[in-house]
Design a protein that fits this description.
Blueprint lengths: L1 H8 L13 H32 L1 H12 L1 H28 L6 H26 L2
The structure holds protoporphyrin IX containing FE (HEM).
The site of protoporphyrin IX containing FE has 11 residues, from helix 2 and helix 4.
Length: 130
């Protein structure tokens, strides 16, 4: 009975835009979103890869497709999602080993993940897409 009374008193805020997440929280949500998007788009990427290898004709189709600026931007976004997922994944593995679990280190490592993943995206994007 007392349990129910306590639960009823808990503050509720379902107005999502008013919730200000700290950086590690944003990183965590992006890690989940990036994992899901990478998983869902894996068949498309594998199809594109297969097209590039099957024959000279399908290679030309894949090349024309990836030459489109919109496709390039989508691929750049995917590269960033992958880099974010990869770097955040390494951070989570370190957290699982109890490395950097205090608040200050967790905030610092979140900043490092964003910085490194964006830098890697620029480098890989410039090399592969342009
Ligand atoms: C295309 C490749 C990948 C896909 C599709 C993928 C997908 C996913 C998905 C769907 C999750 C669950 C996310 C959640 O519900 O919170 C996940 C978690 C995770 N991924 Fe990946 N992943 C990929 C690559 C990687 C790589 C390269 C790493 C290396 C660091 C990694 C490290 C992790 C870790 C550590 C977790 C667990 C995070 C936690 O403790 O909540 N993933 N991944």
């Amino acid at each position: 009975m007392a349990d129910i009374a306590i639960k009823k008193k808990r503050p509720k805020n379902l107005d999502l835009p008013t919730i200000r997440l700290p950086l590690p929280g944003i990183l965590s949500i992006l890690h989940r979103i990036s994992g899901a998007v990478l998983f869902l788009l894996l068949p498309v990427l594998l199809w594109l890869f297969q097209q590039s290898l099957a024959s000279p004709e399908t290679y030309a189709v894949a090349k024309a497709l990836t030459g489109n600026i919109l496709v390039k931007l989508i691929l750049l976004g995917l590269i960033w999602l992958y880099m974010h997922h990869f770097c955040a994944g390494i951070r989570y593995l370190l957290l699982d080993l109890h490395k950097g679990i205090d608040l200050e280190s967790a905030r610092l490592s979140s900043k490092i993940v964003f910085g490194v993943s964006i830098a890697l995206t620029v480098i890989v994007g410039a090399k592969v897409l342009w």
